Amino acid sequence: MSKKEDSGGKKCSHHTELYAEVPASCLPIVYSPEYNITFMGLEKLHPFDAGKWGKVIRFLKEEQFITDEIIVLAREASEADLLVVHTARYLNRLKNAILEGSREWSLVVATITEIPPLLFLPNFLVQRKVLRPLRTQTGGTIMAGKLAIDRGWAINVGGGFHHCSSDKGGGFCAYADITLAIKFLFERVEGVASATIIDLDAHQGNGHERDFLEDRRVYIMDVYNRHIYPGDGYAKRAIKRKVELDWGTEDSEYLQKVDLHSEGALNEARPDIIIYNAGTDILDGDPLGGLAISPQGIIKRDEIIFRAARRRGIPILMVTSGGYQKKTARIIADSILNLHRQGLIGEEALDVAGPSHVSLMMSKSVSSGATLAAI
């Protein structure tokens, strides 16, 4: 399909349902029950808590911060949406099975999700029970990018698949949602021409780094355990502010570095939006992260990033990324509640910020004119 200009002068290649108007009564918190991966207990074979997203929402409801009526319901990213970043060859590899006799073997998906038994399930079940939830979370990140511009902040309770690039997945990441959210904004929203990724998951975010290696519009700060997966030296060339941590790094050192380097990053490049990858696999005892940050340290870390964005009037999109302990859902919920208590998110957050870049963006934001996308 040839590219056509939208009403704001941006080049858009396809119609999307992901940039629908959202009622003002909704908070920019994006979620769908479809995020959660549950099928015959197979999700328990990976250390990732594949139901943590629903638990976060349940905790927020119990604290009476949200109700179903004010959550923005995530939509599944369509193939046309995914093709904004992904190659057709990669998407076909996810879609197609390897035929051997009468069986279809889902080798690629089993490898990416690190759940070997998926190899032995019928391919149509793998598509429905594993890839569809990941596509819905990806759609949620793209939606939250637009909401962040409109409202000054947004949280996708899922997403953060930072090991996936345009043509390769890995580490439980099948779709490049961070890259997609940024590319959608660049293509569709007037006035968005630069982005800063602050990646604080315990692992290096090699997926978005590979995607933006030659793109000067995107500034990447990455803080990670230097000794663990993926160790992608090629992708590291894209990192503008690299902070490599050692095993067992604790709160004091960690928070000092996060504060120092986030301030430095945002002083070096004044972006139109911040994408904050807020992985909780930095938590002490995480089987994959190898760091030793307390729950209170994670809550403080998130506050540091949101406060830095708020001081500068920069819209911020948060995604939840990795976290491999059952208690991480509670910590994510507690952190969101703390951000609200601090006046950094919620209906009053824009008033706290005062006149800012956000008010300019709200007047320039471009809508596709699709139907409402909220519960």
From TrEMBL:
Residues forming coiled coils: none
Name listed for the protein in its UniProt record: Histone deacetylase 11
Keywords linked to the UniProt accession: Chromatin regulator, Hydrolase, Nucleus, Repressor, Transcription, Transcription regulation
The encoding gene: hdac11
Catalytic function, reaction form: N(6)-acetyl-L-lysyl-[histone] + H2O = L-lysyl-[histone] + acetate
Entries under CDD domains matching the protein: HDAC_classIV
EC number: 3.5.1.98
SUPFAM superfamilies: Arginase/deacetylase (SSF52768)
Function: Responsible for the deacetylation of lysine residues on the N-terminal part of the core histones (H2A, H2B, H3 and H4). Histone deacetylation gives a tag for epigenetic repression and plays an important role in transcriptional regulation, cell cycle progression and developmental events. Histone deacetylases act via the formation of large multiprotein complexes.
Family recorded in the similarity comment: Belongs to the histone deacetylase family.
Subunit structure, interactors included: Interacts with HDAC6.
InterPro entries (UniProt xref): HDAC_classIV, HDACs, His_deacetylse_dom, His_deacetylse_dom_sf, Ureohydrolase_dom_sf
